[in-house]
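Rather than argue in generalities, we have chosen a single entry, letters for residues, whole numbers for local backbone shapes, without further comment.
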Amino acid sequence: DIALFHANSNNFTGTISPNIAKLPYLYELDISNNQFSGPFPTAVVGMDGLTFLDIRFNFFDGSVPPQIFTQNLEALFINNNDFMLTLPDNIGSTHILYLTLANNKFNGPLPGGIFKALSFLTEVLFLNNRLTGCIPYEIGYLREAIVFDAGNNQLTGTLPFSLSCLEKVEQLNFAGNLLFGMVPEVVCQLERLVNLSLSDNYFIQVGASYHLVVVRLVLENLDLGGVFAQNTLTHLDQLRVLSLKNNSLTGQIPDLSGLSNLKTLFLDDNSFTGSFPPSISSLHRLRTIDFSYNNLTGPIPTWLTSLDRLLDLRLDHNRFNGSIPPLNQSSLQTFNVSCNNLTGAIPVTLTLSRFGVSSFSLNPNLCGEIRNQKEQQSRVMIASEAAATAEAAAVIQVEQEHELEEKVKRVQGMQVAKSGNLVFCPGESQLYCLDQLMRASAELLGRGSVGTTYKAVLDNRLIVCVKRLDATKLAGTSKDVFQRHMESVGGLRHPNLVPLRAYFQAKEERLLIYDYQPNGSLSSLIHGSKSTRAKPLHWTSCLKIAEDVAQGLSYIHQAWRLVHGNLKSSNVLLGPDFEACIADYCLTALTSPPLMEDNPDATAYKAPETRNANRQSTSKSDVYAFGILLLELLTGKHPSQHPFLVPKDTVQWVRSSREDDCGEDDRLIMLVEVAIACSLTSPEQRPTMWQVLKMFQEIKEAELIEEGELDPQGMGMGMS
């Protein structure tokens, strides 16, 4: 009988025969790197002796049977297929040591139940899927994990403090998600962590202790901003890769002399100033230097010729002056000093002669002759007066052609608007046309501040929500402005936002089409109907709803730098799983003058600084509205019924408004304190929404500590 079957790396096709289940002694099956297709080979489900299953790099599709996660497998490799499934919660019941689900189409949240596998999982790979939601705090239970990779998904929220419990982790990858806020200091203090990848998120602060552990620091495209402190990188003596590209960093490049093992350095696409950092002269292991697209000045140092391992040198699009050093390293493969203020003759070296005119162009006072071996030894003259004039003319011509192309695009867009076409947002399938929308049966759902909302049932049985905007409120908004704004708003995608799918405008008619949310509004849930009075929700329900709203609002603020402007309980809808989804976001920017409310409840959400008719909403006024919404959740009372109280009296008022939760008084007080902080009179004193999320995370973790499920010393946490 067969016990081990390896058929990897062939060109096998077709499906897997169910007869494989007739091999009772089979404990290892590897059919990876072939061209098998069809559904998951369900015959392996129930093969109790199987401990190793590798079907990666094939074309399997469909769902994965949840039972596979409860078998006695030690290794499960199903990455690089086309599986599509919401990860089941029983994934935590696994005995698997190596769980690799990367490069598929798994969706939904990371299951909180994963913590049940705390004694087993050592490598977890979720990267390149479609996972959404927050990183569950239960991840801290995976104390055996060495690798946790959830990069390139759609995860949102902040990094949970419970990550600090992963004492054995060496690699953490959350790059390419929608995460924001602060990278917790306790995560940076993980003793075994050597690879931390957080690029392409929206973090704004990194804990100072990261220099103690990492050898690869990738913090790209985070819009960190601000001056890079000069002593920040002085102790990173194990660092091999440093990438801080595209972060709006300013000031001088800090001292890098302590990075004795550095091989790769990307500081491009920032706003660094000052001269070329002399500290680099001691970094003899450097292979890549990229300072392009900054504002660096002064000469390019001649000591660069001594970096004999240099492969890539990009200094283009700065303001360097002086001459080019006579670089002659045979290893140099990439070289670009274009778009600077360099002068003098190009040095005649074998290395520099390998690079074409594009590596030296747009330096008006650079001259000389080079031989470009890649262009069949053709001779290229640089920056003679005639060549410079011709090149400038070519640049102008390209720019003029680009402007003409943009004008054509704008005219086409205006023609679309004038003709009244239905415009679908980027990435949306055109599931219906304007005629179908106009023929749909319509049911009035409500009248709001900027328009009237209808439930529309199309002839293909698709149900959508249509908001007809009030023409008088948007009278000052041109068609171009409206279209550009809708293109931005239509790009917002988050589990806690009702997605805008399409929009329409013609003359004075403007429509927005959203997903229909079946469970009504948060206002109805809190206050009940006219005939029934609802009780205040349990504090855990309040926390869950408030966290959902905070996630969506933080995404609007942090990821897109936009403002909701009209947050209230009637603009929070409940999705199919009763998740809270924010609606009517980012519309007040189109109203002129700013939206003013006659309804006393709606007025109560307005921050004091925006109650003047000429004051626009800001992210801090959104935070104020969130604070009022949280008090509404906790008390069950309309905002117009909220008294003006000092913080101490507010806590007592909330207590008196509730009839339960006596046993959870500490958690209730914490939530009230969050609401108080958000609704402070001074906008400068209010927290940001990602700070609010951090407070919620600490409330949940405090509850787990009280129940004995988390170790507070291991997490290094404390309420702030």
Summary: Residues 40 and 64 are 6 Å apart (CA to CA). The first strand starts at residue 4 and ends at 6. Confidence is low (pLDDT under 50) at residues 373-419, 714-720. The two ends are 63 Å apart (CA to CA).
